[in-house]
Specification:
There is one protein chain. By secondary structure, the chain is α/β, with parallel strands linked by helices. It is about 25% helix and about 30% strand. It is built from four helices and 16 strands. Strands 2, 3, 4 and 6 form a four-stranded mixed β-sheet that branches. The protein has a three-stranded mixed β-sheet with strand order 8-11-9. The longest helix has about 35 residues.
Length: about 270
């Protein structure tokens, strides 16, 4: 029994010695390997010269700068925006690090789309990397209805990509409207100068006989009384002919009818 215990003690002692020797060998090997290894320092945000100096302090060198930079909203133009290998990567001393320099925030120019139709303006903005924002309207007497008057931001402005651009479209000027008065039984020749002096025009004027009505009296009208009418509309009339009996009675109105002024609801 005693021999067995002594054997176990010797075996345990040998295992401990072997373990200590292994740990010492691993530590020595790691120190030997790591003696030529260093961590890559972070150089993002530095100028090229500053990055070169920081790498040199760690025994590294600036391998090169990529020809194409990268846009960045945070890093100023000409400073490091990206590096390879990444910071804290273990590399051998003397290794090189490649960097990418910032081009600054990306900006695009608002294109000129005035006088274009809305679909054409949308295509031009999309081609510039922008989007259409709020669409508003404004009355215009010079541009075709639906064409672009201007944009906000204005053409030539430099803005970030995907920024919404508000578009102002031309609207036709609303026509002034009046309420058509009742012209029946009024004298056509007496009314005509009044209407024409106010910018209205007569279109079709037909003549027909009507018993009991004097020549020149209006028999029918279009538009009908009470209907809205503009100065661009033609007023059509039917007037009694001159060969009706001369002694017939004519129930003419005592005054000339007046077109009521346009109201806000008629515009």
């Amino acid at each position: 029994m005693g021999k067995l215990l002594r054997g176990l003690v010797y075996l345990a002692y040998g295992f401990v010695v072997l373990l200590v020797f292994g740990l010492a060998a691993y530590t020595s090997f790691s120190l030997f390997v790591r003696s030529g290894v260093t961590a890559v320092p972070p150089v993002e945000g530095l100028t090229r010269a500053e990055a070169t100096n920081r790498l040199a302090d760690q025994g590294l060198r600036l391998r090169g700068v990529e020809d194409q930079g990268r846009y960045s909203e945070k890093v100023r133009v000409g400073r490091v925006v990206r590096q390879s290998p990444d910071p804290r990567t273990l590399v051998k001393r003397g290794s090189g690090v490649t960097v990418v320099l910032s081009l600054g925030p990306q900006r695009v120019d608002v294109p000129e789309v005035a006088t274009r139709s809305l679909p054409a303006a949308q295509a031009a903005l999309s081609g510039s990397g922008l989007t259409v924002g709020t669409i508003l309207g404004a009355y215009s007497t010079t541009l075709a209805t639906g064409s672009v008057v201007t944009t906000d931001p204005s053409p030539g402005s430099t803005i970030p990509p995907s920024t919404p651009v508000n578009v102002l479209l031309a609207l036709s000027v609303p026509t002034e409207r009046f309420v058509m008065p009742d012209l029946v039984y009024h004298d056509y020749e007496g009314l005509r100068p009044y209407f024409e002096s106010h910018g209205f025009r007569f279109g079709s004027v037909k003549y027909e006989r009507y018993e009991g009505v004097s020549a020149g009296v209006i028999l029918r009208q279009f538009p009908l009384p009470g209907h809205p009418v503009t100065k661009q509309d033609n007023i059509s009339l039917v007037v009694a002919t001159a060969d009706t009996p001369a002694d017939s009675a004519t129930p003419t109105a005592p005054t000339t009818p007046v077109l009521p002024p346009p109201t806000p609801g008629d515009r």
